[in-house]
Structures are given as C-alpha cells and as structure tokens.
Here is the input.
Amino acid sequence: MRHVGQRVAAVVADSEAAAEEGCRRIEVTYEVLPAVLDPEEAMRPGAPAVHDKDAVTARISRPRDNVVGEAHGEIGDVEAGFAAADAVYEDTYRTQRVQHASLETHGAVAWFDEDDRLTVRTSSQTPFLTRRALCALYDLPPERVRVVAGRVGGGFGGKQEMLVEDIVALAVLRLRRPVKLEYTRAEQFYGATTRHPFTIHVKAGARRDGTLTALQLRVVSNTGAYGNHGPAVMFHSVGESLAVYRAPHKKVDAFSVYTHAVPAGAFRGYGLGQVMFAMESALDELARRLGLDPLEFKARNVIGPGESMLSPGGEEEDLHIASYGLDSCVDIVRRAQTEPVPEAVPDGWLVGEGAALAMIATGPPGGHIADARASLLPDGTFDLAVGTAEFGNGTTTVHRQIAAGELVTTVDRITVRQSDTDVVRHDTGAFASTGTVVAGKATLRASRALADQLLDFAATHLRVPRAECGLAEEAVAHPGGLLSLKELYAAARAVGVALTADGHFGGTPRSVAFNAQWFRLAVDPGTGEIRILRSVHAADAGRVMNPMQCRGQVEGGVAQALGATLFENVRVDARGEVETAAFRRYRLPQFADIPRTEVHFMETSDAIGPLGAKSMSESPFNPVAPAFANALRDATGVRFTDLPLTRDRVWLALRDAGTTDHQEA
Here is the structure.
C-alpha cells in the first residue's frame, strides 16, 4: 500500500448489493509505516522511500530520494543575465490538486464473445493503449483482445489511465462470465488521479527598456504514490512556458516527486497551466516594477514567426511555428482594454484588469500515431473508421466534415465507427489535443485516397479519361452524365475491387497554437468577493473547421480553468486521505459563477495541420489563472501566489495588506 484509497481486493458477485456485502466482510490488517506527503520533504535524506526499487530496471531517476524524473538545463549564463538586469523579480507559486470531475466516472464491462475473444467496453480515451496494457499484463495476443470505447462521458486526461479495465478483465478470465466495474464518485476522488500540484520558484530579470535578460525556474511536481504521467507532465511544463519568450539566458531545475498521496496524472494542459500561472504572474510583476504596461512588456519579448523555440530542455526539432497569430491575439486584448464598457460596480469595490499569454504544441513529442479508413458502402454512402475517441471533444463532427469535403458529399452520408481496436490498425488515443490535428489528418488522407480510387475506377469502368471525371454528391460526373455511387459500388464488386482506402499520420512535424486571456474584475475588500466584469479570450486555432464547436471548447476551457482558479481543491489530511470525496464537499463552479466569455478566433492557416487547422482543446485552459491573478493584483495591489483564489484567502490577504476595512466575511 502506498496511499489511502489504493485497491486491495476485488469481490465479484451477482449483484452490487452482494458485492458490497462481500467487501464489508473482508478484514484487512495494516501495519502502518512512516509516510511522506510533502514533495520537498520526500527529497530530503532519510525520508521514507515510496518505491524502494532499482533505478535502472524501474526507470526511476532516484528511487531513494523519491525522484521519479528530473530535468536540468541552462542556456547562456543566468547569473550574468540577472547581473545585467535593471530589475529582478522572484517568488514562489503553488498550484493545488484538481479532480477531473467528468460526469461519467471510470467504468468498464468485459466478456468473452462468440469467437472466444476478450471484449472490453470502457470509458477510455485510449482504447488501443488499454488493449496493449491488458495483453502485456495477462500475456494475451492482441488478436484475442478487443477494446471499444464508444462515446465517453468526459475525460480531460483522466480517462488515459487504466484503472478498472484490468480488474474486470481478470474477473472475466477467471470466471468466463460478463463482469462490470464502475467507480462511485467517492472512488473517483481517492482511487483515480488528479491534476499535479506544483511548486514553482520563478526568477526573471529585465532592462529598463523592457528587454528580458534572464529567466529561471525551479519546479517541483507532486506526482503522488505512482509515476503515472509524472515525468512527462514535468518535462512538458517547462517547455512551451519558457520557449514562448525570448531571453538570452534561461535555466531550469525540475523534479517529479513521489509522495504517499493520491496519484496525479494527465489533466488538461499537462503541466503548462501550472507553470504558466507562475511565469505569466512573474512577468506581470516585473513589468510593474519597471513601470511598464505588462501586456506591452510581454508582447515585446514573445517569439515571432520563424524564430526558434528554445528552452533549457533543448529545442524540439519537429516543432515549428507553422502559422503565427499571437500578435493578433495581443491586438484583441489591447482593443478590449480600450473599449469603454458600462459597469455597475458598488461603491468601495476595487476594479482591475489583467492578461496572460500562452503557447502549446499541437501534439505530444515522439510521434502520436493515428490510422483511419474510408470506404464506399453499397447504398452509395460512406463508412469512416477512426481510432480516436469521442469524449465531448467534438472530433466525430470534425472528422465527418473533413471526409465530406474530400468526398464531395454531405456529413449525413458519412457513418463513423470509432474508438474500437477492430476498426483500424492503431490510434495512440484522444489526448494531447490530437483529435483534429493528428487523427484528423489520418481521416483527411484516407478520404482523399478514397476519392482518388473512386475517380480512377470510374474512369476505367466508363472508359473515359480520368481528368473528365469528377465527384458529385451522390455520383461521379462524366461527359456522358452521372454514374451513381450505388452503381459504382456494384460495378467494383462485380470485378472484385474493394473501394476502400487507409490514411495514416505519425504525429510529426508539429505546430504550435497561441491563446490570450483578459479579465476585468471587481473586488469587495470588505468580504473578499470577486465579480468578473468582462472576460475576453483570443485564440489562434488556425483554420477553424467548426466555429460553434470550437467556441464551445474555448468557453469550456475557460470555465474549467476558472473552477481551478477560484474554487476547486482536492484536500488531503495528515495521513494523505482525501477529505473532499464528494461534490458536496468539492466546490465546482456553478452556472452563475461563470461569465460570458467573448471568444475571438485569429485568421491564420497552419502549414502542418489538416486543411490549416490547429488544436484548441487544452490551450484555452492555460492562460486563465494568471490572467485572473494579474487582474486581481491590478485591483488590489496584492500579488497572490497560491491557488485557488478562494474568497477567504483573498480577504485574509487584503486584511494583512491593510486594504480591507476588517469586516468579518
């Protein structure tokens, strides 16, 4: 046992009531051992080792020091950079655990089908990776295991974990009967994963003219009792957050640390949101100390089109600025700052505004594989098989649009089969913003290849030049008229030709997307209450394929980020037990808490993404917390460094700063 809530035994029964009674009858005797919950303490000599393993075989950086992964690097000489600065700012920022809180908890049902294959239907973003893990765990060949996800009721990164599938598979292998397991909401809190809590010490220096001279980060990520995505989140967190700004001297020391707490895993933003909270807040404060406008200070130092994205972790060779809209995002914020908006602000309330910028890669490093297959059906409609999962990200609609455009038809004539290991060769999964830019590119290539097949076969069948054939909505147009797709299918089948085509994309090269968030808010210094007066978000998503759907992604990202900024906090007690294992104790934002966000899309077209598109599922989340904190600083004069910015924390900080009238909240 390494954390409170870790699974110990499984009871299989004919009813949930019987299973629960079986669990109650199990007696477990625990020997309580010393535990460590703070990552800084976990790295000190003599701290209890969470995993006492060999570093090489376990792929743990320093097991005795509880360091699962670490990154150290320097560009130039940061000490020289700080010496050359006219102003230097440094402080420590902290972010908290956050639950994914998807409406559908982790759940799976498994059985043996008529071909004696293990079939698992699961709420997962990664059916192909789940199949691979099950095969490795139970020594099964891939052809004997099928995993299908269907439509998943929310994920946000949490459904990348295999948390229930291995248990139901084990039970089915033992009993050869269908078995299901679905987490309760409490189990979701203490048995699934959370967002990584981060501690970030940031130091930044600049000259009077607003030129950055040096940036330095020390990052400690609490990955909990198991590694999960610990090292990857840590590495990603110090990538684009540093690379987006030009500075001749940069340094990073980052650690992903084991503790005896609920494990952390993948969560929207994948570490960037935590470090950007610190970086964007620090640069805002540095600009104020130089007497400069924070937005203009940042705009002066961001990278431009064609520039290299450098961070101490090294330049990623496959990462490019394939389209650039960050300058336009900044222009949107500038316009919002100058627009007069009537505001009904009560007397005595403090008003402020703040902005933050963000950059994110449009896919993970190391290649993210996607396969798709497009086929003509007997009735003249099309079948599209894709491996990526639909979990509210809207990729099903976008893939239909891509296929319909290439096949010159309408979306209602495209049937989609997805997230099923039987339908295509492989898809790494629906995560890291890859649903459109990676899986969508596979769909584009499959659809384009099928369109070529249709025209090639039609030309051969009709004995006319290929150049004289063209696709219409339900037919192939040729000099003699129209050949319906039904007739084309029948003709191909008669000679043994299958009109089907595959598309593949390996996830590289990659581009970057940009976002900017701006808030104007009002604060009651007597109570700590905050009201958002205006929220503006500018997004460089390349060519936006479905504006309404993409707008929903941005609005949802801002709403979720506001929850993490203002309310949400998975609290653990002195033993590491989760204290907020129910929604009545875990404060999620309500409809009235979320303002209308004005969403603006930049007019760019990406040279890498399918049809010019870029990702926009994770990136809207990342600039929200720092933009809010910067607006709060502008209103109150107090720099808040810890999340969440709850009403009591705000009031106490204002009281200590002498800003409140010392009324009891």
Notes: The radius of gyration is 27 Å.
